[in-house]
Amino acid sequence: MFRNQLHPISLFSILVLSIAGLFLGIAGEIYHEQSRYRSSTPAFGSTWSEGEILAFCIFLTVALFWIIGGVGFLLRRNWARILLKFGFSVAAVIWGVFMTVNFAEVSRTPFLMGGVTAGVFGLVGGALLFLSHTEIVLPYFQASRPLESLQSQVLDDDFPEDRS
Fold this sequence. Notes:
164 residues; globular
């Protein structure tokens, strides 16, 4: 029913940009909570605690990180592929540390948090495997492609040569 001609790199970039949208939404919610009841005070005024400013800046920075990685990957830049591999690896480590530190609170809902943890590690594992795929991803991120391989992609190759 739903068919498209999008390349898997484009689809993965959309996934990464949606992750950025999630973090951007969390930062926006933190900002909105501060401005909801205190509309007369400026942003980062006296009503913001240090923890709220820190959380807002962290979520905004993480969103910017994923936006840069997603757009760079969409433009097929090799540094973006490496940046995304690093980002997904760090995300897995942070989630593991979070689950370890908050084990007492997490143990109240073990099936829910176990499912979320399996989802996070599955997403990270799938992303790392996709970013290193030898047939779909890596051919598009080689440092330099020879001129002969680019010339063979010209549309006029199917026409017979003029032999006069």
